[in-house]
């Protein structure tokens, strides 16, 4: 039964679970658990925190499906990743910290790379922490679609082709959103007089 279910679409599995087929949910979880956990771990960079957020993600998925509030016909993949991203953002808002990965191949890479330089002295660590907190706050102010592309590109190391498929847009649109995200971050940095180098 499970093997047969695995061949079905996400939407079929969702409908089966809503109609009482518990194994349909198990199939969905098996289908997305690696992708979701890898994404979370890449962003938070702490296994214990990632496990907590992973569990929270699927608890929210289950609760939403059970009460009949799922309305994302044909977009389960995007929906679950949006839940994941929102929970990560909530986590950073609560913890007041954010880690950034080094990515030398993204658009605007030199801008982002300023935040991921290794630090050694106490002064540098304090400055870097303040920079990260400031940037974290600014990222949450970006439009949702720009946040999504930025996080998929920087934290999940997805290509723009993969991002386009994930978000159901053209590659040019994905590139445009990334470009505007970087431009908007730069403008907010200038407007708030945030110093990003030391």
Describe this structure in words.
The chain is mainly alpha-helical. The chain folds into two domains: 1-95, RNA polymerase sigma factor, region 2, helix turn helix motif (Rna Polymerase Sigma Factor, Chain: A); 97-198, Arc Repressor Mutant, subunit A (Orthogonal Bundle), CATH 1.10.10. It is built from ten helices and no strands. The protein has helices spanning 2-6, 10-18, 22-44, 47-66, 76-95, 109-113, 122-139, 144-154, 160-167, 171-191. The protein is globular. Residues 97-120 have low confidence and may be disordered.
Question: Secondary-structure map with pairings?
Answer:
Blueprint: H1 2-6, H2 10-18, H3 22-44, H4 47-66, H5 76-95, H6 109-113, H7 122-139, H8 144-154, H9 160-167, H10 171-191
Average pLDDT figure: 76
The CATH superfamily name of the largest domain is Winged helix-like DNA-binding domain superfamily/Winged helix DNA-binding domain
Report the biggest beta sheet as strand number plus sense, adding barrel if it closes.
none
Please tally the β strands and state the result.
0
Which stretches of 5+ consecutive residues score pLDDT under 50?
A: 97-120
**Distance between the terminal alpha carbons, to the nearest Å?**
59 Å
CATH topology value of the largest domain: Arc Repressor Mutant, subunit A
* The first-level CATH class name of the largest domain: Mainly Alpha
Q: How much beta, percentage-wise?
A: under 5%
What Rg do the Cα atoms give? 19 Å
Q: What class, by secondary structure content? A: mainly alpha
Keywords:
198 residues, mainly alpha, Rna Polymerase Sigma Factor, Chain: A, Arc Repressor Mutant, subunit A, 2 domains, 71% helix
